[in-house]
Amino acid sequence: MLLKPKIMTKWVEQAVLFFAWTALLLSPITMFIGHLGSHSLTWVQNQISTYAAQAPHDHWITAAMLLSALALLCIGLLVPAHSFYGQNLWSRMIAMVLGAAAAGLLLIAGFEETAPNLKLLQNVGFSAVRQQSFHDAGLLLFFYSALLALMMSGLIILTKGPDLLQRFQGLLIGLCGPVAFLSLTTVWPHSIGFSGMTAGLKQRVAFLCLGLGFGLILFLMTKSGKADTL
To answer: Is the whole model's pTM more than 0.85, yes or no?
Structure first.
């Protein structure tokens, strides 16, 4: 993940950008397909992990997780090679945090949800509890690592951006992290008319914020064309 700019040739940069964009754009498409089919689940109440374990097209959701992990890894490769990050400790830290976020997604995909809530988890065996523990650990690792990567990236671009527009984009990237956190942890759906359990809605909005943030980072990388390449 910590490639030096001098060995990131132009064609390698373009290839990594291509895979990053492809994975990032295909991820919501496969996620949508995974929600289709005849089932009793609802996206407002049930979390994505529940769909990945119980929906008829659950493998599509797993594919979306793997594609998202690929996108994060590609962005992590590009971060130290771009001029608005620079070859320094902070860019290396962002690359490492993105690797941790990708590892969290791999844990989520590899250890499917065995119980959607604590009450049901108390009635399953030890093996299922252990699997759910790995699943929950992967979710925490992914979410908070992705938040940290966005906030660090936004702060760097905000302070080092060459023009006002790029600094404003850095501000938006940085804000995507806190907005995603608040979307997941507050009861905002009730204030706009939703009632009952809304864990699924909150999770999807939070993950949408993360996706928008990383999409903005890729946009800046693609638009700048100023990676320090040979």
So the answer is: yes
